[in-house]
């Protein structure tokens, strides 16, 4: 049948004449695309001019390298000898003539010369041709689905597979029988991959295993054994080659990363030079400390900077620098405002130390909200250091402001009480001090009495999620109840009235001054039982217990406790044990008020007591100053609990004269040591009736002697290894004073 194609056939190419390899896995040359933008003639333009325009447009698309096929072979081979294997691969796809020339067996020297230009590259395996070896090294496509950008080479099987295909072309050891294979696995090439969960990372080549299985099916006897030995030898060579290939790939990746890092560094330095010329030298220094400039997407590219590139990225980089400068100045302003707030706090603390009642002194947020104080904090130049002298003039009428502030806050609390139907118009300022008047914090859900509600931490703590303002967030303090988180607790009010009524007290007149809190205890009849003991608690905890902790199925049943002398002593001992720093109920957030000197009045957390004494009262730090012993005795006369101390310090106690150890175990959160509990019980059994014996520090040894331990916030179980001071026998402790009782502001 005659040929009807208008294209001439390449009769001068003999595809069977010494072609080295025609493996289909070597990608064929793509067909040349047609011009998507053909030239259309315009009748209004001269024809010769249009032809010239067409010629000029097509000039860059002419095959200039087509003349290579007309060169002598020795010249052509000399040129090819200076190329790399990836360059030769590109030439094989340029034209059929070049493909024929480069894939002939006589051209193997060209591929070897090209491979020699790459340092450290392993020799080509004997069962792999040079072009296929070059394709394996430099063609980043999957040999199964032909997906591009596949960089993982499986050296033992001479393949590249993407993550999607690598599991479908291989199998694990436990999948061996799924494919009906009967060959030993020690002849199948294997490799390790990052397999997903529930898949075996050790994989075997499925195609090779199936081919080997079909070949082995018809072999028997000695021929079968020789065939197996041959395949094992081939596998050994492949394993050796895979080790060399992986080492070369790792080294190449490392060198490539160094090249990219070097290019990024050159680009960074060039951009820094350009930005410096634009006046951003100071800002560059600040950004480089945090690596923000080098991490910018326009800077960290591994491309050398040119004038064209700089002109393209100049505007977004300048905008980036302006944004970062604004953020830095805003952050600097926040830091300076915080520092100036600390100075103002010291000024307020100094004023409060000369007042009889520190509770009635406004907090930092309320003071800093005044215009005259806010102007000093915000309007003073950032490079000027603010000292207490800056606030001296503003503090002249501070006493009048404190009185006005207290009147306003009391009026706010009275207004909250007026909203309660059962109180209504009866609400007055005098009712704030009643035992039944309770408020609640919607942030921490604590029940607050008066005047604790005025100094509650949450009421002046700013919110970082919005609503407080950047100024108060920087100060870490805001005006009292700025976000309206304090409200009247109606349920606590009703519970308190019932407890007082059941105890025979008048809820409309009963007050609990601080001086009487140590004397009044209440017993919950719902939680008390003969086996465990009587559940007793102070007044602040009595309301909370009846409101939240007591079983909801029973009505509140609580009355004032009238203890015997033995019960009063045991209650005192249990409270001392529960408030010991080792009981587990103390936390760094528990606040104390300093009483050193004429009344320092500063609020200090437990973790900052030693630093406070060293900084503000260095006279107490003598040569024999013992930090651990001081921490164990600091609340004798130097500090007292802040009125806003957490209510867990008032937790219920278990009162049981027959088995007092049960009460001590309930009072301590951590497990008590046997020696500790023995000392507790021995002191009680001996009839010790002295209020100054601190039982959490007693230790009874095997000889019957009692020692006082100097705990350094150690666990009770390791008490045996702590420093101790022998006190003699138990009877000698009756007149020994070690620590006083807790006092409350």
Overall strand count:
18
* 3D shape: elongated
Arithmetic mean pLDDT: 77
What is the gyration radius calculated from CA atoms? 44 Å
Strand order of the largest sheet: 11-9-10-15
Class by SSE composition: alpha+beta
> Any low-confidence stretches, pLDDT <50, length ≥5?
1-29, 39-45, 669-676, 687-704, 708-745
Pfam families: APH (PF01636), F-box (PF00646)
Region (Disordered): 1-46
Organism: Hypsizygus marmoreus
Biased composition (Basic residues): 1-11
Question: What's the layout of helices and strands?
Answer:
Blueprint: H1 47-58, H2 73-80, H3 85-92, H4 96-103, H5 108-116, H6 130-138, E1 153-154, E2 159-160, E3 170-171, E4 190-192, E5 202-205, H7 206-216, H8 221-277, H9 281-290, H10 307-352, H11 364-368, H12 371-379, H13 398-418, E6 439-441, E7 447-448, H14 470-475, E8 486-488, H15 490-502, E9 522-529, E10 533-537, H16 539-549, E11 558-560, H17 565-578, E12 591-594, E13 603-605, H18 609-616, H19 627-633, E14 639-641, E15 653-655, H20 660-667, H21 674-685, E16 698-700, E17 705-709, E18 724-729
Antiparallel strand pairs: 1-2, 3-5, 4-5, 6-7, 6-8, 9-10, 9-11, 10-15, 12-13, 12-14, 16-17, 17-18
Helix pairs in contact: 15-16, 17-20, 20-21
